[in-house]
Structure formats: structure tokens, C-alpha cells
Amino acid sequence: MKPLLLVWLMAVSSGVGHARQIVDVHSHNIFPFYREVIERHGAEMEEGFPLPAWEVDSHRAFMDSAGIGCTILSMPAPQPWFGDRDECRRGVRQYNDSCARLKAASPERFRFCASLPLPDVDAAIAEAVYALDTLGADGVKLATNSRGQYLGDEALDPLMEVLNRRKAVIVVHPHKPVPVNEQLMARLPLAAYEYPAETTRALMNMLTRNLLVRYPDVKVVVPHGGSFLPLAIPRLKALVPVLQARGLMGEVNIEANLSRLYYDLAGVTSPAVIRTLLTITSPDHIMYGSDYPYQSAELLTRNLRRLEAALAVDKELSAYADDFLWRNAARLFFLPVDSQSVASLANQLPTVVTDTDSGMLVRISEIEIYPQYLDAYLAAALEVGATSVREEPGVIAIYPMIQQRDSCQVRILEIYASGEAYRHHLTTPHFKTYKQGTLHMVKSLDLVDMIPMNPSAMSEIFLKMKPEK
């Protein structure tokens, strides 16, 4: 077994190496009063699956066993709206107040996205203002549809204006579609197909209304590995000009809308799914999610270990493992980063972890390109390298080269002033364009971190390369 994989598996199997660093952005809490409302209206099986048991100590135990430091809680389905507006308002307010108390008691472990009493838009606006401004909610949770009122509906525009002014994070969760074939649903649980389809349906409705361009300061988290969006987006791009030519669709900037979308990995344990997701987003917009308590703590922990192990040995994705597992979520939700946890992880893996936060980061990217994409890839690599060096102070060099004996073998020397400069580079528009546009061109990728033997000579080397005047 390779030393890197052996050390990693030793760390993840014990749970100690995580230092409780992982952030779970997709997790639910089910308070007794919520369950009572659902049962009073006979809606226990409305979503085709019974509400699981939940209590805070069991959730803490799951987090401890899985190495999860912080979880973002949200209300599950179904929406507690059964025609009585006051009942829904009271239930939602009680939920948000209870979550706020939980956060106040353990802010380092529990955060929450507030529920809103939709489809009552006026009440939802009032609750959003209260939850975000008074309770300190970390975002809001919106159902794909609230009793038939879908995301992207014009009736929700006043709510979007309020959320946009507060630069709110919106976590989306699928609910039972309206309408739905009850006979079909009885044979095939919603979670198996309709939930991904429902999420895709709601997000496509938002995109075609140019919603996230019109409200550019909100950020939307799409559940379950992006659902079917990686398949739907290319089709939408092909259809938009056809529909616009016939006057059936207004102005839509698909790429600008996509830039506001983030994605959780609830239910995803395969790097193949992540690669598919990377055809429509960039590595800094992907985050871990568990979907606790809808599966057992033991199964979720095993799935998380499987995901970590797969990322650790994946030549292309291993560089982004920390981003997926905690760093992206910490940035999005403004979570404090525990430096002691980072130091603990570094001590666990002294032979494979490089301190990228201080000092220069030097790397050689060893890339093999499919022959049919070679010219397009080289043009993209040269463009992103030149733009990065020109516009980013922390990028010292990005220098693509090809082997004389095999032009499909590309080597890129990358030098960054620090790990922070490298992470900033991953968030830039020019890198995202390069990454999304070339992912399908790359046959293999190996990121080889290097140790400069004489760092002090760097300034002399690069000065000497400047042309004489």
C-alpha cells in the first residue's frame, strides 16, 4: 500500500486526524413540536418516508464519531403548512427560536438556516428579517416548492429582495412535487428519483427567470450533488437561443447565475459524481453534507470515510479534499477556523501534509491531454497562466510546458507566494473558466508538491528572466 494512502486511512479510521474539522452543511433537526404538527395533520408519510428520530445528544455523538466539527441545521420536509396561516407562523417561529437557543448553547457545533412560513410571502419576509437580524440565523432554508409555489415564482421576488439586501445564504431542499403521481410515488420513494428531479425543476425555473443575476448577493446551496443539473444545464444552454428567437424566453445569463450556486455532497461518495459536478461549477463551490438523521450514524460515518479515502488517492481531486470537507463551508458561512485543529491534523500526517499557509508553495502539475483537445487546452492553459500572473500579486509563476517526445504530456510549473495566495487563485473568475472549460480535456492529472532547495534565489532567477531594455 502506498504510504500516503496508508497514513490517510490510519487517520480517518480513528477519527482523530480530523480534529473535528469537517463542516456538514446538510443536516436536519426534528423537534417534538414539529413532529406533533405533522402527525396532527396525518402527514407523517407525505414525503414517502417516515420522519426519523432526532435528539441533540445523538446528533452530537454522530458528529464526534464522524469527525464533524460543525453542522448547519435546517427543517426537513414536509412544509408545516396545512391551510392555517397562524399555525404555520407559530410552528416556524418556534422552530427558529429553538434553533437559535441551540446555536447559543454550542455555537462551535451547531448553526442553522431559518425556516420560513411559505407560501405566505408577507409572513416569510417578516420571519426572514427576524431570524437573520435578531436571531442571528446563518441563512434560510427554502423548499423547492411550498404547496405548489415554486422557487423562481414571481410572488417570491419581494422575499428575494429582502434576502439579497442581507447577502443571505439560501439552502434549498426538495419537497414533494406538485402535482405528483401518487401511485408511482408509492412504488418509488421520492428520494430515489423525484427529489433530484424536483431540485432540478426548481433551479431551472430560477435560472430561466435570471433570478440570481437580478439578486446577485444571495448564494444558493443546491443539495445532493447538484441533482440533475450537470445534465440539464448543457441542454438549457442549447435551448435558450432557440426559445429567445421565438420570443419564448427573456434575457438569461446562465454562467452568471451558475456562479451564485454552491453544492452539497449529501448522498455522494464517488469522485465520478464530483467530476460531473465540476462541469458546471468550480472546486470552491462544493461542500460536504450528510443528510443526518435520514440514514443511520454508522452508515453515514462509513460513507464519509469512503469519500475521504477516494479523494485521498484521486490525482485530480485530492488537492481539493480540505476545500470540499470544511474550508469552502467555513468561508460561505463565516465560520471561525480553529488553528489548533489544523495544527493537530498536520501533526497526524507529518509526511504528507505541507504547510501551505506560510511560505512559498511550489508545484508541478503533470497532465495528460486527450489528443483531440490538445490545441484548445494549450490555448486555455496559456491564457489562464498569463492572466493569473498579471492580475494576482500572489501568483509568482504559472508556466506551461509540453514534452518534446509527447506533446500530450503537459507540465505546468506553479509558484505561489503562500497557500492563501493559492486558495485565492482557485476562486478567481479566470481560473474557474479554465477549470470548467478544460475538465473534459484532461485524461490524467498528478499534482506534485515540491520543496525549493534555495528559496532565496527565486528573486534573482526571475529578475534575470526580465528582458533587457
From TrEMBL:
SUPFAM superfamilies in UniProt: Dimeric alpha+beta barrel, Metallo-dependent hydrolases
Pfam families attached to this UniProt entry: ABM, Amidohydro_2
Single annotated GO MF: hydrolase activity
ABM domain residues: 361-451
Record-given protein name: Amidohydrolase
Coiled-coil blocks: none
A GO CC term assigned to this protein in UniProt: cytoplasm
Keywords from the UniProt entry: Hydrolase, Lyase
Transmembrane segments annotated in the record for this chain: none
Organism: Barnesiella viscericola DSM 18177
GO biological process, one term: secondary metabolic process
Keyword Hydrolase listed: yes
Domain of life: Bacteria
